[in-house]
Amino acid sequence: MMVQFGLLVTILWLDATTRLPLEAIRAAYDKAFSAAWIQVLPLTRSPYPAVRYWAAKAARYRADVTDVVLDQLVPLLKDPDPVVAVAVAAALAARGRKNPEIDAAFVRALRDPQPGIRLEALSFLRELPEISDRFADEYRSIQQLGRSVPYEVQKLCTELLERIAGR
Fold this sequence. Notes:
- The chain is mostly helical.
- It has one domain: Leucine-rich Repeat Variant (Alpha Horseshoe).
- The protein is built from 11 helices and no strands.
- It starts with a helix and ends with a helix.
């Protein structure tokens, strides 16, 4: 379900950023989740952010990801596209990796002026309770934006703050 939602978000985001055909997005998505990693790794070097995003997403959810693959994703923590960087940060954090750039990628995405990017970061953090409490101040600052923040973003911030408070 979350992966399918991510595909929809990617299509909408990509439409606003490049003119990569939808068939190419779907092909990258299919390859990222079904091909051998030797075929997926070149996707991380694509000029298209949506393709790099799906390679990172696959590293988060596929069971066959090795340390060698994760090491090759680390440079993408500084990807110019904040959605790619936060997808890589989520993949590495979910695999237990520790790197100051992981937190930095989340902070950049949570502070991004585009609500969709903040929502993507919050969605990843919802799935990563082991690190989400480190971003409580960011959640509060997003909530304080008031009406300019979409309901979904405010709802995720509230949920994450309540979970942190309950610990």
